[in-house]
Amino acid sequence: MQTSSDRHEYPAHWEADVVLRDGGTARIRPITVDDADRLVSFYEQVSDESKYYRFFAPYPRLSAKDVHRFTHHDFVDRVGLAATVGGEFIATVRYDRIGADGTPASAPADEAEVAFLVQDAHQGRGVASALLEHIAAVARERGIRRFAAEVLPANTKMIKVFTDAGYTQKRSFEDGVVRLEFGLEPTDRSLAVQYAREHRAEARSVQRLLAPGSVAVIGAGRTPGGVGRSVLGNIRDAGFTGRLYAVNKALPEEQKELDGIPAHRSVRDIDGPVDLAVVAVPAEHVPEVVAECGEHGVQGLVVVSAGYAESGLEGRERQRALVRQARTYGMRIIGPNAFGIINTSPRVRLNASLAPEVPRPGRIGLFAQSGAIGVALLSRLHRRGGGVTGVTGVSTFVSSGNRADVSGNDVLQYWYEDPDTDVVLMYLESIGNPRKFTRLARRTAAAKPLVVVQGARHGAAPQGHAVRATRLPHATVSALLRQAGVIRVDTITDLVDAGLLLARQPLPAGPRVAILGNSESLGLLTYDACLAEGLRPHPPQDLTTAASAADFHAALSRALADDRCDAVVVTAIPAVGEGSVADAALAQALRSATAAAPSKPVLVVHVELGGLAEALSAAASTAPQVRAGDAPQTATQPAAPDQRPAPGDPPRAAADAHSAAPHPHPAGTDQPPAAPQAPEDAHLIPAYPAAERAVRALAQAVTYAQWRRDAADPGKVPEYDDVDVKGAAALIDGLLARGEGPALGPDETCDLLGHYGIEVHRSLPAPTPDAAAEAARALGYPVALKATAPHLRHRADLGGVRLDLTDEEQLRRSYAEMTEMFGAAQELRPVVQRMAPRGVDVVVRAVIDPAAGAVLSFGLAGAASQLLGDTAHRLIPVTDREAHSLVRSIRTAPLLFGWRGSAPADTRALEELLLRVSRLVDDHPEVVAVTLEPVVVASHGLSVLGASLRLAPPPARDDLGPRTLPAY
C-alpha cells in the first residue's frame, strides 16, 4: 500500500502508463516506503556492469541505509520514480535538489542531480527516455529548472539518453567523469523528439497487434457456433500465415485439436510464444484469462467480450479494471466489445474478427468504433454495385469497440508510415483526446488523405466511451478538424465515395471541372451540383445518345488536354439501338484516354449501367497498380513497393513519347485507340450512381488538395517588439497570489492586455448623471453612453447603447431616457466611453477547452455570430497565414472588404490583433478565456471597446508534459 511521504501527500497524478519503444507498456509511479523489497529484488537482477556505471565503483548489493534513502522521499527536494511491469521494478530514476555548491538544498534552489538505473533485460526499450520525460515534468512542477548528471565516459547508452532528449545542454569533463547540465524548459527540439518517440512507440504497439506471428483464440467453443469458434474459423479460413491455437478450459484433457487447429485448456499450456490473444469468454472470466496471458508473455489482446462500459456503471468499473490489469503486464487492448481486426497483407492474412469474409486486399485503412458500422463499411467496400460501383480493397481494418485502450489516435500513428495504406477512412463516435487527434491528423493529412465521419454528433457519446468533457459545439470541433486537413463528411456513403476517389486518382490542381456525356439532362444536373459545391464547371458537353466509344474517348482526351480544366466528370446513360455503345467498349475508351493523361482526376456518373460498373470495377480498385509513366511490369517482374507514387503526388513522366500521347484509331472503326502499354487495370476510374455524390467527392478532393498546398507553407507566429512576456507573467502571478479571478476587473484586464500591445478604449463608470458628465469632460466629446448590465450589454437595438453624444445636454437627456426605460442606474451599471471611428463591429474570443485545447474564434459582432453562428475557429498558436484565412472564412466576410460600396476595413490590423491574442493565451496557460467585444475595425486601425479576461491556475500537466496513455 502506498503511503504519504515525509512532507507531502503521495502525488497520485504522477502515475502514468506509457508505451515503450518496442510497443509494450510500462507503468511509471513514485517510489514509496512500501517498495523496499521490490527495490532490493530489482537491484539483484541488475548486472555488475550496470551497477558500476550507476555508482562508479563495484556495488554488489544495497545496504539497509541505501534502501531507506532510495525509498523515502519528500516528493519535493527528493523524488524517485520507478517503471514497473507486472508490479515489479524494471527501472528507476531519482533527483536530489542541490545548491550552488552541489550540496543538498531546498527551494528556492532550482537545480537537481539526476541518476538512472535500468535492468539489463529492459535496456534498449526506451525506458530511460520515458523516465526522463516524467522526472523532468515532476521537477518543473516542483520549481526545478536544471538537471545535472555525472556519467562515466564508457556509459554511452546513458549519455545518449541525455543528449538525444533535445534539451539545451552544457557538457564538461573532469576527473574522468562526464558532467552534463541541461535546462528543463521544453524546446522545439525536445518536443519534436518527444512526439517522434511517441509516434514510433504507439505505431509499433499497433503493428504488434495487426501483424502477430502467433494467435490464440481463448473461448473457442467445443461445438460450432458462438463468437469464439466463429473468430477461430475466420482466422483459419483467411489463411493466417502464423501459428494459430484454440484455447478453452472446458476441453477434455485428451482433446488436442479443434477443427484441425492445435487446442489447449489454457494459454499457459502452449509451447511457444503467443503474440496476440483474442478473448471471447464471458466478462466475469476475462480477468483470469488476462492474468494467464500476461504471465505467458502475450503482447496484446483483442477483447470481443461484451458486458463492459456499454452496459452501465458496473460495466464501466469492470472495463477500468481490465485496462489496469492488462497494462500491468505490458499488454495493449483493442476493445472490449470489439468487432475485431483484419490485415489483408499476404505476409499476414489475419481476419481476427466476426466478419465471415476477408475484404479484398487494397490500400485503404479503415477504422470504425462501431462494429455495426464496420460491417456496413466492409460490405460497401467489398461488393460490386449498390452504393459505389466497382471493387475496392482494404489494407487493414480495426474496430475498437469501447476503445478502452487502443484508439483512433494509435491507429493513425501506425497508418502514417504504413507503406500498404494510401488512404485512411475513419468512423468516430467520439474523440477521446481531440487535441492529440488534431495534431496527428495534421501530420497524417500532409502525407495521405484522412476522411472522417462523426457519429453521435447531436448527442452524448456511446456509454462505453470515456470522453473528456468539452464546452465546444460539434460545429466548432468539425471546423478545427478541417483546419488540420481532415476531410469531414456526414455519412458513411460520403466516406466511401471520397475514399474511392482519393485512393488512386490524382488530386485536382484546382476547382475547374469539365463535364461531358451522352445525356444533356444528366450533364445539367452535374453542372448544378458543381456550382452548389463551390466548383467552377465548364458548360456540359453533350455527346448525344448516339455517341460511340470513340466519341467518348476523343471528348475525354480533349478535356484532359485542356489547360483550363482540372478534373473531368463523365456522365453516361444506357443507350438503346443497334449502334449504341457497349459497356465494355465504353469502359475501355475511358480508361484508354485516362491512361494517356493521368495527371487529372476522372469520375464517372452512370445510371443503371450494370455492365459499365462491372467493366470499370478495376477503376475503383485500390490494389497496388502501375500508373502511366511507370515502366511496364511483367508477371515475373512486379513493381517495387518503394516505386509506387504516394497519393496526390504528380505521376511520373511517361516512359516515351508513344506512351504519353493517344494513338489515333484506325480509319473506319468505332474503336478507341489502344491504351499505352500497361496492365489492363492500371488507370483507375471511380464510378458513382448519382451526380451529387460524384461531385461532392470531387469537391472534397479539391478542398483537400488546396489544404495540402497551403500546408506546405503554414506561415509563422510573428514576434512583436512591444510584447512584454515577463511583465505579463509577473502581473498574472501577482493577481493569482492575491486571489484575483477568475474574472478580472476592467483595470487589471486593460493592464494585462496592454503587455501584449492591445489597447482597450478607456471607459469610466457613470452611476449618476453628474458622474457621466464629468467622465465625458475627462474623455472628450463625442462619447457613448452604455449599459453594462448583462441583459443590455452590447444591445444597441434595445436602447442599451447611445452613440455620438456631442455635448452634455445630449448626454444627460440620453441618461434620463435610459434610466426611465430600463430602471435605476444601479441595475444598468452605465459607463461613458469616447467614440471610436466608424467601422465594422467584430468579436474576438479565445478559450481553453479541456478537450480541444486553446481555440481562437472570430466573427462579426451581433446577430451574425450570435444568431447565425457565423464564427470561424483556429487552434492556438495561430500563424500569420492562419490569421489571414480566419478573417476571410466567415460567410459575412464581404462586409470587411467593401461590400456594396462601403469603405474596406483595415484587415491587416485585425489580423495583427488576432495574432496578439493568440500569443497571449499561448504564452500564459493561466489565461483561460479572453473576449474582445466589440472591436470596431475602421478603414485605418481598429478600436477595442470592450474586454473581459479570466484567469485560473495552470494545470499540473499541460500539453508540454510527458507521454502518457489515457488514465483509468
Instruction: Tell me roughly what share of residues is in helical segments.
Output: 25-40%
Mean pLDDT: 85
Structural class: alpha/beta
Q: How many strands, what sense, and barrel or not for the largest sheet?
A: 8 strands, mixed
Number of extended strands: 38
Shape: flat
Could you give the order of strands across the largest sheet?
1-2-3-4-5-6-8-7
For the termini, the CA-CA separation is 18 Å
Tally of alpha and pi helices: 28
- Low-confidence stretches at least 5 residues in length (pLDDT < 50)? 1-6, 384-390, 618-682
What is the gyration radius calculated from CA atoms?
Answer: 33 Å
List keywords for this structure.
disordered N terminus, seven-stranded mixed sheet, about 950 residues, alpha/beta, flat, eight-stranded mixed sheet
What does this structure look like?
By secondary structure, the chain is of the alpha/beta class. The chain is built from 28 helices and 38 strands. Strands 1-2-3-4-5-6-8-7 form an eight-stranded mixed β-sheet, sandwiched between helices. It has a seven-stranded mixed β-sheet with strand order 11-12-10-9-13-14-15, sandwiched between helices. A seven-stranded mixed β-sheet has the order 17-16-19-18-20-21-22, sandwiched between helices. Strand 3 and strand 4 form a beta hairpin. Helix 15 packs parallel to helix 20, helix 16 packs parallel to helix 17 and helix 23 packs across helix 24. The protein is flat, with a radius of gyration of 33 Å.
Summarize this entry quickly.
This protein has about 950 residues and is α/β, with parallel strands linked by helices.
